[in-house]
Structures are given as C-alpha cells and as structure tokens.
Amino acid sequence: MEKRIKVGIIGTGGIARAHVSAYRKLPFVDIVAVADVIPGKARQFAEANGLTEAAAFDSHTELLAYDLDAVSICTPNASHHRTSIDSLRAGKQVLLEKPMSVTLEEAVEMTQAARETGNMLSIGFQPRYDPNMKRLQEIVQSGRLGKVYYVETGGGRRRGMPGGTFIRKDLAGAGAMADIGCYSLDLALNALGYPRPLTVSAFTSNHFGTNPLYHPEADRFEVEDFGVAMVRFENDVVLQFKISWAMHMDSLGATLFLGTDAGLKVTPAGTGPWSGVWDGSIGSMTVYHDAFGGHTETRVPLIEHSLNLFDEKVRDFAEAVRDGRPAPIPGEQILIQQAIIDGVLRSAEQRREVSVELPQ
Ligand SMILES: NC(=O)c1ccc[n+]([C@@H]2O[C@H](COP(=O)([O-])OP(=O)(O)OC[C@H]3O[C@@H](n4cnc5c(N)ncnc54)[C@H](O)[C@@H]3O)[C@@H](O)[C@H]2O)c1
Q: Domains in the chain and their CATH numbers?
C-alpha cells in the first residue's frame, strides 16, 4: 500500500488556499489540521475549504502537538522564524512560504534547527519548477558565457502594491525587497550557483505606498516599495538588483548576465501592470555574442510546458516527505539571499555600504 502523509497548515490566509488546493491533487496526502492566530479563523477556513475532518487550532503550538508528518507555513514573513523552528523541533518536515525570514540572524537559527533535528526546511519558490529555470542555470554554468562578471536582475511591478499584512513592518519585516525581490534574487543566484556575498550598498524608498493618491492604506504603510542594491560577491561577480511594487515606468528591464564570451538576456513571461517580475515563468532567453566581423543574437528555444508551478512545488515537497528525500529547496541555500536582503535593509538604513557576514 502506498505510504500516506499527514499535513498541517499554519496560517490560513490567502496563500494557504493554494497549498490546500495543491495537496488535494495528491492522493497520498491528508490535510488533517489547520491553525491561525486569529481566534476562530482556522475553523472558518477549514469549513470554507471543505476540510471538515481537519482539526482547527488558534495557535501553531497546539497544532504541532498533533500527529503530523509535515506542515506548510503560510504566515506573514515576521513569524516564519518562530513557526518554522517550533515545527522542526516538534519533529515536522517544513515547507515554508517565501521569503525565508526577515533577518539573517533568523535564517541562521532556522537553518541550525533543521540541521540539529535532521528535519527538512524547504523554501517555497515555485518559479524553480519552470523547466526553463534549469535551462538558464545550465547555460550560465556550462561556461558558454565565459566568466560571468556582472548580473542585473529585479524588474518590478508598474502597479502592484499589496496591503494588509504585507505593508506592516512588524508582520512583513520588509516590503518589495522581501516580497518579490526574493524571486529575482533566486533566479540570478540559482543560475550562478549561489556564490557568497561580501558587501551590499542599497537605497530604498516608499514614495508610492505612503501617498494616498496611490495606496488606500497610505497612513499604515511602513515598508519600502522600491529598492536598488549593488551586491559584490567573493568570485569577482557583481549584481545589480532593483525592485518596485509601483512606479511610473513599464518595466525595470530584463535580467542580464554579462560574461567574457557571451551575454544572456532573460525576460519574464506575462504582460500587464502586475508582470515584469520574477514570480512566474520565464518568457524568453537570448544569447548575445559580439566580435570583430560580426555579432549574433541566438534565441534559446524555451521548453514548452503546462505545469502549474505552485502545484509542482507542493508536490515535490510532499513526495520528498513521503520518500525521505532531502529538502527540495533547502533553507541552507536560501540563507544566502536572506543575507543579501538583510544587507539591503541595513545599508539603506545606514546610507552606506555594509559587509555581509555569513556563518561558515
Ligand atoms: N509563493 C507565493 O506565490 C506566495 C504568494 C503570496 C504570499 N506568499 C507568502 O505567504 C505568506 C503569507 O501570505 P498571505 O498572502 O497568505 O498572507 P495573509 O495575511 O493573507 O495570511 C497570513 C495568515 O497567517 C496568520 N498568522 C499570523 N501569524 C501566525 C502564527 N504565528 N501562527 C498561525 N497563523 C498566523 C494570520 O492571522 C493570517 O490569517 C507570506 O510570507 C507571503 O510572502 C507566497
């Protein structure tokens, strides 16, 4: 008989629904418990989503006392640290929504908890399941571009500012940098093989979020809606990273990899004011090569697919739990981009370049 796994959901807001829908497609998974800090919300969520058999709790600690193999953590960013450490220590395998944490210190503690307990901490970056992400990584790591010395990534939404828990410093920790910047960082760093960052020089602002002309919750807007950073890595690569939730511009440009033998331009799929950001699939990849006697532009054929990337990330995690495989997207790796986001916030606040101290 096929091994079954029991899953719980911590945080029953918007994205929790996508986790439920994805788990439901897996015949070997039972969603047996849900929890939310708002009293009664988990029970309502269970009823609204047809999880009538599931136990509902008003705190994640009560849920963790339940017989479960794994949890999906779908709480706002600032509580990722506490909920994931408690879950790992309670013996559960963890699928944690992005971004991993708010500060580097938190990410380090979370990684240590995963190591000490031997339980997995996997971070939910669904764009990784676009097969073209793998192709991009192969091109960059194949040496076809020569030595990659400069990368530019980010992009941004023309009009795409969230509200609610996403704009409160105590809950979200950071704004656009953490919310969508983490995707661009993962795209670039995954292709580069997650090199170690050394320094960050950054600037952030919130001209749109705090202006009632542009945001209905302007008086409660506490995070950045724009950010730009220059990140220096140990292997003589620099990354320029920029992100916006709103701007008077259609796009902040493509992702560029400049190498000594060739360059690669990558654009996101999708159009419209919410697009131009790496929270979906890859739209195009083109390799440029210039030399005396001519230049070439070669379109990399994309791998056609009809995958639902979100469902794929949940499936991969659930199968890893069932089969005893390691974390599909380990916290240990994502710690590196958390160090960059942490550096961005520190640098912007101190208005100077800061060092990034990563533990060995
Ligand atoms: N991967 C994606 O595509 C994607 C999309 C949207 C959001 N997210 C991420 O998912 C997370 C949640 O986002 P959302 O849109 O669902 O937010 P949300 O505000 O709609 O829901 C969060 C829920 O968590 C609850 N909560 C807060 N602290 C808790 C705790 N300690 N224990 C239990 N419940 C707690 C809140 O009461 C709320 O119901 C964020 O980190 C966000 O970045 C990921």
A: 5-125+309-330 (3.40.50.720), 128-305+339-355 (3.30.360.10)
